[in-house]
Structures are given as C-alpha cells and as structure tokens.
Amino acid sequence: MRTRKENAKEIYHFILIVAAILAIIIMAAVSPLLKEGLPKPDYYNQDFEDAKVLRVIQEDIQQDGVIEGFFTGKQTLEVEVLSGKYQGLIQETVNVIDLSHTVYATEGMEVIVGIREAEEGPKVWVYNHKRKNYLYVLAALFFLLLIFFGRKKGVYAIIALLFTTAILLFALVPLIFRGYSTVLVSSVCAILALVVSFLVIGGFEKKTLVAILGTICGILAAGLVSFVFSSLTRVSVVNLEKGSQIVYMALDYKIKVKGIMYASILIASLGAIMDVAMSISSSMQEIYELNPAISFQELFKRGMNIGRDIMGTMANTLILAFMGGSFSLVMLLWGYNMTLRQISNLPFIAVEVVQGLSGSIGIVLTVPFTAFMACLLYLRHRQGKIKKVN
Q: Cβ of 322: how many Cβ atoms within 10 Å?
C-alpha cells in the first residue's frame, strides 16, 4: 500500500507533467510574439512552396566523374505549384545541377520551389528536395519505439524532449535575437531544461535532486572552461560554422554574438552530462539502500569508482560527436598534407578542440560533483532517520 508521502509525490509528478505540456503549448504560441518589433530583413524576399514536376521537357546532363549516382548539367522542367497563394500555377523553369544545387528532377517528383515576383509575373525555380515527410516518419518511428519499449517512462521521455526542444527554439533563440545576454539566457534555459527533464522522467526523488545538482555544476564548469579558453585562443563566433553569417545578421538584429560559442558548447554537452549525473546518482542510491550504515568516505569512493567507468566512455562519445561533425574537415587537412604546426593553429581546429574538450571536462567534473552531492543528501537523510528514532 502506498504511503501518504508516495501519493503526494505522484500528485506532484502529475501536476509537473501537465505544467510541462502547457508550457510547451504556451512557448509555441508566444514565440511568434517575440518577433514583433524586430527588423525584418529581406534575406529571402520570395515564397517557398510545395510543387510537382509535371514533365521533363529537355535535359543535358552527365554522370559526375567522382560521385557515383550524381549528375551535373541542366534541365528544362514544367512544374505545378501545389501550395500557397500561387497554388495551381504551372510554369517552365530551368534547373541547373551542380555541387551546390544537387536536385536532379524526374517526372512526378515532388520538390520545393522558390517563387519570386518579377515585372512580368511570378518566376518559379527549383529550390530543393521535399524531405519533411520522411523526417516526420523518422520522428514518429523514434517516438513509437520509445513508447513501445519504455512504456510510461517512454512517454515521460518524449514530454521531456519536447520541453527541451521548445525552450531552446521558442525561448532561447528568440530572446537572443531580442538582444538579451547570450551567456545568461543560455545558462538559464539550459538549467530550466535539465531540471524539468529530470523531474518529468525521474519524479520527485532524492536521486533526481542529486542528478540535477551534479548536472548544473558540470555544465557550468564546461561553459566556464570554454569561455576562458575561447578567449585565450582568440576564437569567437566568427570561427564557428556559419559564424560569419551570424555576425552579419547581428547588424540587423540586437544579437550579442560574444556568448554564442558558450551557448553552443552548453547545449552540445548538456545531454551527456545529464546522463553521467543520473547514472552516478541512481547507482549511489542503490549502494546506500543496500548498506544504509555506509560511511561518507566509502560511499564517495564507490561513487567515484562508478564515475571512472562512465566518464571514459562518455567523454569519448562527446569527442567523437564533435569529430564526426567535422570529419570532412579532417579529411581535407589530411589531403592538403598540412604540418602539425599549421593544423594546431588553425582557428576552426581551435574551435573544435575547445568545444570537445570543454564538454569532456564538464563530464569529468560532473563525477565528483554528483558523488559529493549524493553523499551529502543520502547520508543527511540517514541522520534524519536516526534523530527520529532517538
């Protein structure tokens, strides 16, 4: 039979889940309002709509000599616009295929087209493949697998994931564009995301509180290290991928670009640090429950032993994630036969090293932080029991 305390926890957990779902809905609704009053640069002064290739009128294409299955050349197409204010418009367009525009169109194929106004009327051009339906299927498959294997916990994981996504897309990004401090906003959003995620998935348990405290210490440590060493190595948002474009965009908006790199490292390392913190917290709770008389030193030692096994693989995972994201760059450097002195002083290499190692340092420091918090909270709970008995 459940105790009154356990029933209260269930009620609080249910209220939190409902509040998280409402927060997702509210953030999605309020996010467009945050755009009000901001400048509206005409970066893309055109519409992008669904379209269908009715027929290939003419084509002059050839197989690429390097990439198997890739074509280059030119096509003349007849396309029909399927959505938006130009729905039903049928027009001929020339589709140039090269390394920067890889859409090889076939009859009956659905594509995304750009439509721009000209003096003689709307002009249609093939913008890209239509990919969103397949992405929706992939997301649905992921959610179904979570629910099938995770049951109730899988549903909680989906809610936590949607909340984290919502707070990053509907709160963090708009607030940065409105000119708020990137460092402050990203720190607050990351902490809020991890707190709600942990509570939704783990409930109001002591191990959840330990994991929250350990994760906060870990991500702030990673952010601080990245902030210091990005300054020492003189790398900034300009050296990030698409960073120069963000700088130019900042001229139109109020973006404080100085903290963009800090925010990117915080977000990239958050998941791995959360995983480490919860693994240690949960394991140490099991150890404590098996031996409630365990000493502070022994429990901390056990926690560190568990953490040592975890930190190696998780740090490796984070480094490989950053490495995978820049693998093509690594191949280019190898192909150009650069020396170590050249490579180690390239700004984008410094960015990758600072990002990867800052996140890994955050993981390493999460281990003692979480182990210490676990000892404090679990053993403090034991002291409370002893006093109650006396």
A: 20
State residue 113's pLDDT score: 94
pLDDT band at 251 (very low <50, low <70, confident <90, very high): confident
Tokens of 107: 């009859």
3-class DSSP state for residue 358? helix
**Separation CA 210–CA 288 (nearest Å):** 13
Q: In what order do the strands lie in the sheet with 110-118?
A: 90-97, 71-81, 47-63, 110-118, 121-129
Asked whether the predicted pLDDT for residue 325 surpasses 50, the reply is: yes
- The amino acid sitting at 224 is L
Q: What is each CA distance from 26 to 13, 23, 244, 349, in whole angstroms?
A: 20, 5, 33, 40
User: In whole angstroms, what is the distance from residue 222 CA to residue 263 CA?
Assistant: 11
Q: Which helix (DSSP H) or strand (DSSP E) does residue 126 occupy?
A: strand 121-129
% of the chain surpassing 70 pLDDT: 93
Question: Alpha carbon of 42 to those of 38, 182, 221: distances in Å?
Answer: 13, 25, 40
For 171-197, what is the mean pLDDT?
90
Nearest CA to 86 out of 49, 130, 59, 112 is that of 49
CATH 3.30.450 fits 160-389, yes or no: no
Mean pLDDT of the chain: 85
Amino acid of residue 98 = D
Please state the pTM of the whole predicted model: 0.81
DSSP annotation of 238 reads: G
| Distance of alpha carbon 58 from alpha carbon 209, whole angstroms | 65
Give the HSE-up count for residue 340: Cα atoms under 13 Å, Cβ half-sphere: 0
Report domain extents, the chain.
51-129, 160-389
Nearest CA among 169, 152, 156 for reference residue 28 = 169
CB 178 within 8 A of CB 254: yes
In percent, the amount of the chain with pLDDT more than 90 equals 38
Q: What is the DSSP string of 19-38?
A: HHHHHHHHHHHHGGGGGTTS
Q: CB–CB of 196/162 below 8 Å? A: no
Kindly give, in sequence order, each residue whose CB lies less than 8 Å from that of residue 150, ignoring residues fewer than 6 positions away.
157
